[in-house]
Automatic annotation (TrEMBL):
<dbReference type="InterPro" id="IPR027417">
    <property type="entry name" value="P-loop_NTPase"/>
</dbReference>
<dbReference type="GO" id="GO:0005524">
    <property type="term" value="F:ATP binding"/>
</dbReference>
<protein>
    <recommendedName>
        <fullName>Cytidylate kinase</fullName>
        <ecNumber>2.7.4.25</ecNumber>
    </recommendedName>
</protein>
<dbReference type="InterPro" id="IPR011994">
    <property type="entry name" value="Cytidylate_kinase_dom"/>
</dbReference>
<dbReference type="GO" id="GO:0005737">
    <property type="term" value="C:cytoplasm"/>
</dbReference>
<keyword id="KW-0963">Cytoplasm</keyword>
<feature type="domain" description="Cytidylate kinase">
    <location>
        <begin position="6"/>
        <end position="221"/>
    </location>
</feature>
<keyword id="KW-0808">Transferase</keyword>
<feature type="binding site">
    <location>
        <begin position="10"/>
        <end position="18"/>
    </location>
    <ligand>
        <name>ATP</name>
    </ligand>
</feature>
<keyword id="KW-0547">Nucleotide-binding</keyword>
<dbReference type="Pfam" id="PF02224">
    <property type="entry name" value="Cytidylate_kin"/>
</dbReference>
<keyword id="KW-0067">ATP-binding</keyword>
<dbReference type="GO" id="GO:0036431">
    <property type="term" value="F:dCMP kinase activity"/>
</dbReference>
<comment type="similarity">
    <text>Belongs to the cytidylate kinase family. Type 1 subfamily.</text>
</comment>
<keyword id="KW-0418">Kinase</keyword>
<dbReference type="InterPro" id="IPR003136">
    <property type="entry name" value="Cytidylate_kin"/>
</dbReference>
<dbReference type="GO" id="GO:0006220">
    <property type="term" value="P:pyrimidine nucleotide metabolic process"/>
</dbReference>
Amino acid sequence: RKPQQIAIDGPAASGKTSVGKLLAKKLDYLFFDTGVMYRLATYVALQKLGSVEDEDQVTRITKEMDIALRVNPENDETEVLLCGEPVNESIRSSQVDKNVSIVASYPGVRQTLTEQQRKIGLLGNVVMVGRDIGTVVMPDAALKIYLLASPEKRAERRYQENLRKGIPSDFHEILMDIMKRDEIDSTRVLAPLKAAEDAILIDTDYINQEQVVERILSIIEQPE
Ligand code: C5P
Protein backbone atom coordinates (compact mmCIF):
# COMPACT_ATOMS: atom_id res chain seq x y z
CA ARG A 1 0.00 0.00 0.00
CA LYS A 2 1.41 3.35 -1.04
CA PRO A 3 1.91 6.03 1.66
CA GLN A 4 -0.98 8.51 1.51
CA GLN A 5 1.16 11.39 2.72
CA ILE A 6 4.75 11.93 1.69
CA ALA A 7 6.76 14.65 3.44
CA ILE A 8 9.94 16.02 1.86
CA ASP A 9 12.03 18.47 3.85
CA GLY A 10 15.47 19.94 3.42
CA PRO A 11 17.46 23.18 3.29
CA ALA A 12 17.15 25.91 0.65
CA ALA A 13 17.66 24.76 -2.95
CA SER A 14 18.15 21.12 -1.99
CA GLY A 15 15.98 20.01 -4.92
CA LYS A 16 12.78 19.46 -2.93
CA THR A 17 10.55 21.07 -5.54
CA SER A 18 11.95 19.25 -8.58
CA VAL A 19 12.05 15.93 -6.76
CA GLY A 20 8.60 16.41 -5.22
CA LYS A 21 7.01 17.37 -8.53
CA LEU A 22 8.51 14.41 -10.36
CA LEU A 23 7.58 12.00 -7.60
CA ALA A 24 4.00 13.29 -7.47
CA LYS A 25 3.71 12.88 -11.22
CA LYS A 26 4.93 9.27 -11.08
CA LEU A 27 2.52 8.43 -8.27
CA ASP A 28 -0.32 10.54 -9.65
CA TYR A 29 -0.41 12.48 -6.36
CA LEU A 30 -1.03 16.14 -5.61
CA PHE A 31 2.19 18.14 -5.26
CA PHE A 32 2.26 20.96 -2.77
CA ASP A 33 5.18 23.30 -2.12
CA THR A 34 4.68 25.01 1.25
CA GLY A 35 7.55 27.43 0.55
CA VAL A 36 5.22 29.14 -1.92
CA MET A 37 2.98 30.20 0.97
CA TYR A 38 5.80 31.78 2.97
CA ARG A 39 7.05 33.44 -0.20
CA LEU A 40 3.58 34.81 -0.95
CA ALA A 41 3.18 36.25 2.54
CA THR A 42 6.60 37.89 2.12
CA TYR A 43 5.81 39.20 -1.34
CA VAL A 44 2.49 40.72 -0.28
CA ALA A 45 4.01 42.20 2.89
CA LEU A 46 6.83 43.80 0.91
CA GLN A 47 4.33 45.25 -1.54
CA LYS A 48 2.03 46.62 1.13
CA LEU A 49 4.51 47.64 3.82
CA GLY A 50 7.83 47.99 1.99
CA SER A 51 9.54 45.83 4.61
CA VAL A 52 8.79 42.81 6.80
CA GLU A 53 9.90 44.19 10.15
CA ASP A 54 6.47 44.80 11.65
CA GLU A 55 5.52 41.35 12.93
CA ASP A 56 1.91 42.27 13.77
CA GLN A 57 1.25 43.78 10.37
CA VAL A 58 2.92 40.92 8.51
CA THR A 59 0.89 38.42 10.53
CA ARG A 60 -2.33 40.30 9.78
CA ILE A 61 -1.52 40.38 6.07
CA THR A 62 -0.82 36.64 6.09
CA LYS A 63 -4.15 35.93 7.79
CA GLU A 64 -6.02 38.06 5.26
CA MET A 65 -4.29 36.60 2.22
CA ASP A 66 -6.75 35.02 -0.18
CA ILE A 67 -5.01 31.88 -1.43
CA ALA A 68 -6.48 28.89 -3.20
CA LEU A 69 -5.22 25.81 -4.99
CA ARG A 70 -6.24 24.44 -8.34
CA VAL A 71 -4.98 21.83 -10.73
CA ASN A 72 -4.14 23.42 -14.06
CA PRO A 73 -5.96 21.30 -16.67
CA GLU A 74 -3.32 22.11 -19.30
CA ASN A 75 -0.32 20.55 -17.55
CA ASP A 76 -1.93 18.82 -14.54
CA GLU A 77 0.25 20.86 -12.17
CA THR A 78 -1.00 22.23 -8.88
CA GLU A 79 -1.12 26.01 -8.99
CA VAL A 80 -1.45 28.44 -6.14
CA LEU A 81 -3.81 31.35 -6.75
CA LEU A 82 -3.56 34.70 -4.98
CA CYS A 83 -6.88 36.57 -5.19
CA GLY A 84 -7.86 34.20 -7.99
CA GLU A 85 -4.73 34.85 -10.07
CA PRO A 86 -1.94 32.26 -10.60
CA VAL A 87 1.23 33.16 -8.72
CA ASN A 88 4.19 33.90 -10.96
CA GLU A 89 7.96 34.02 -10.64
CA SER A 90 7.85 37.29 -8.67
CA ILE A 91 7.77 35.23 -5.46
CA ARG A 92 11.24 33.89 -6.38
CA SER A 93 12.94 37.30 -6.60
CA SER A 94 16.08 37.86 -4.57
CA GLN A 95 14.20 40.44 -2.50
CA VAL A 96 11.76 37.74 -1.41
CA ASP A 97 14.69 35.34 -0.85
CA LYS A 98 16.31 37.84 1.49
CA ASN A 99 13.18 38.42 3.60
CA VAL A 100 11.26 35.16 3.60
CA SER A 101 13.05 33.51 6.52
CA ILE A 102 12.27 36.48 8.75
CA VAL A 103 8.59 36.21 7.86
CA ALA A 104 8.71 32.44 8.39
CA SER A 105 10.05 32.94 11.90
CA TYR A 106 6.90 34.81 13.04
CA PRO A 107 4.74 32.42 15.11
CA GLY A 108 1.42 33.91 13.93
CA VAL A 109 2.45 33.49 10.31
CA ARG A 110 3.49 29.87 10.87
CA GLN A 111 0.31 29.04 12.74
CA THR A 112 -1.91 30.41 9.97
CA LEU A 113 -0.04 28.70 7.15
CA THR A 114 0.47 25.41 9.03
CA GLU A 115 -3.30 25.09 9.52
CA GLN A 116 -3.91 25.53 5.80
CA GLN A 117 -1.16 23.05 4.95
CA ARG A 118 -2.61 20.41 7.27
CA LYS A 119 -5.96 20.67 5.49
CA ILE A 120 -4.22 19.98 2.19
CA GLY A 121 -2.38 17.05 3.79
CA LEU A 122 -5.66 15.54 4.94
CA LEU A 123 -6.81 15.27 1.33
CA GLY A 124 -4.33 12.37 1.05
CA ASN A 125 -2.34 11.21 -1.96
CA VAL A 126 -0.11 14.20 -1.50
CA VAL A 127 3.59 14.97 -1.74
CA MET A 128 4.24 18.03 0.44
CA VAL A 129 7.61 19.78 0.56
CA GLY A 130 9.07 22.35 2.96
CA ARG A 131 11.12 22.63 6.15
CA ASP A 132 8.83 21.28 8.88
CA ILE A 133 6.49 18.92 7.04
CA GLY A 134 7.73 15.71 8.65
CA THR A 135 8.17 17.30 12.08
CA VAL A 136 5.16 19.63 12.45
CA VAL A 137 2.73 19.81 9.52
CA MET A 138 2.28 16.07 8.87
CA PRO A 139 4.04 14.28 11.74
CA ASP A 140 2.04 11.14 10.95
CA ALA A 141 3.10 10.99 7.30
CA ALA A 142 3.88 7.39 6.36
CA LEU A 143 6.97 8.41 4.40
CA LYS A 144 9.37 11.20 5.33
CA ILE A 145 12.36 12.15 3.24
CA TYR A 146 15.04 14.66 4.18
CA LEU A 147 17.27 15.91 1.35
CA LEU A 148 20.84 16.95 2.03
CA ALA A 149 23.39 18.71 -0.18
CA SER A 150 26.36 20.99 0.41
CA PRO A 151 25.70 24.75 0.21
CA GLU A 152 28.00 25.01 -2.83
CA LYS A 153 26.16 22.30 -4.76
CA ARG A 154 22.83 23.90 -3.93
CA ALA A 155 23.99 27.37 -4.95
CA GLU A 156 25.40 25.97 -8.19
CA ARG A 157 22.09 24.27 -9.03
CA ARG A 158 20.07 27.39 -8.24
CA TYR A 159 22.47 29.47 -10.35
CA GLN A 160 22.10 27.10 -13.33
CA GLU A 161 18.33 27.11 -12.89
CA ASN A 162 18.28 30.91 -12.99
CA LEU A 163 20.45 30.88 -16.12
CA ARG A 164 18.00 28.54 -17.81
CA LYS A 165 15.07 30.75 -16.82
CA GLY A 166 16.90 33.88 -17.95
CA ILE A 167 16.91 35.36 -14.43
CA PRO A 168 20.09 37.45 -13.89
CA SER A 169 21.96 36.25 -10.81
CA ASP A 170 25.31 36.04 -9.12
CA PHE A 171 26.69 32.74 -7.79
CA HIS A 172 28.27 34.25 -4.71
CA GLU A 173 25.14 36.18 -3.77
CA ILE A 174 23.04 33.01 -4.13
CA LEU A 175 25.48 31.09 -1.94
CA MET A 176 25.38 33.78 0.76
CA ASP A 177 21.56 33.96 0.65
CA ILE A 178 21.23 30.18 0.93
CA MET A 179 23.59 30.02 3.92
CA LYS A 180 21.85 32.91 5.63
CA ARG A 181 18.40 31.37 5.11
CA ASP A 182 19.57 27.97 6.37
CA GLU A 183 20.93 29.60 9.49
CA ILE A 184 17.71 31.49 10.26
CA ASP A 185 15.53 28.50 9.32
CA SER A 186 17.42 26.00 11.46
CA THR A 187 17.84 28.17 14.54
CA ARG A 188 14.32 29.58 14.89
CA VAL A 189 12.41 28.48 17.99
CA LEU A 190 9.22 27.37 16.28
CA ALA A 191 9.33 24.50 13.77
CA PRO A 192 13.01 24.84 12.83
CA LEU A 193 14.45 23.12 9.79
CA LYS A 194 15.46 19.62 10.85
CA ALA A 195 15.01 16.02 9.85
CA ALA A 196 12.22 14.15 11.64
CA GLU A 197 13.55 11.24 13.69
CA ASP A 198 11.91 8.78 11.34
CA ALA A 199 12.94 10.56 8.13
CA ILE A 200 15.09 8.84 5.53
CA LEU A 201 18.10 11.01 4.66
CA ILE A 202 19.16 11.24 1.04
CA ASP A 203 22.40 12.99 0.16
CA THR A 204 21.98 14.53 -3.29
CA ASP A 205 25.51 15.89 -3.79
CA TYR A 206 26.41 13.21 -6.31
CA ILE A 207 23.06 12.04 -7.65
CA ASN A 208 20.63 13.93 -9.86
CA GLN A 209 16.93 14.52 -9.24
CA GLU A 210 15.81 11.53 -11.34
CA GLN A 211 18.04 9.28 -9.26
CA VAL A 212 16.62 10.73 -6.04
CA VAL A 213 13.10 10.00 -7.28
CA GLU A 214 14.12 6.44 -8.27
CA ARG A 215 15.47 5.93 -4.79
CA ILE A 216 12.27 7.17 -3.16
CA LEU A 217 10.17 4.97 -5.45
CA SER A 218 12.28 1.96 -4.55
CA ILE A 219 11.73 2.71 -0.84
CA ILE A 220 7.96 2.85 -1.47
CA GLU A 221 8.03 -0.45 -3.33
CA GLN A 222 10.05 -2.28 -0.69
CA PRO A 223 8.04 -5.07 0.94
CA GLU A 224 7.46 -4.27 4.62
O1 C5P B 1 11.39 26.12 -0.06
P1 C5P B 1 11.63 27.61 -0.28
O2 C5P B 1 13.08 27.92 -0.44
O3 C5P B 1 10.80 28.17 -1.38
O4 C5P B 1 11.13 28.28 1.07
C1 C5P B 1 11.29 29.65 1.30
C2 C5P B 1 11.37 29.92 2.78
O5 C5P B 1 10.11 29.66 3.39
C3 C5P B 1 12.37 29.09 3.57
O6 C5P B 1 13.68 29.63 3.55
C4 C5P B 1 11.77 29.12 4.98
O7 C5P B 1 12.14 30.30 5.66
C5 C5P B 1 10.29 29.19 4.71
N1 C5P B 1 9.63 27.89 4.85
C6 C5P B 1 9.35 27.45 6.13
N2 C5P B 1 8.64 26.29 6.31
C7 C5P B 1 8.25 25.56 5.26
C8 C5P B 1 8.55 25.98 3.94
C9 C5P B 1 9.26 27.15 3.77
O8 C5P B 1 9.72 28.09 7.09
N3 C5P B 1 7.54 24.44 5.47
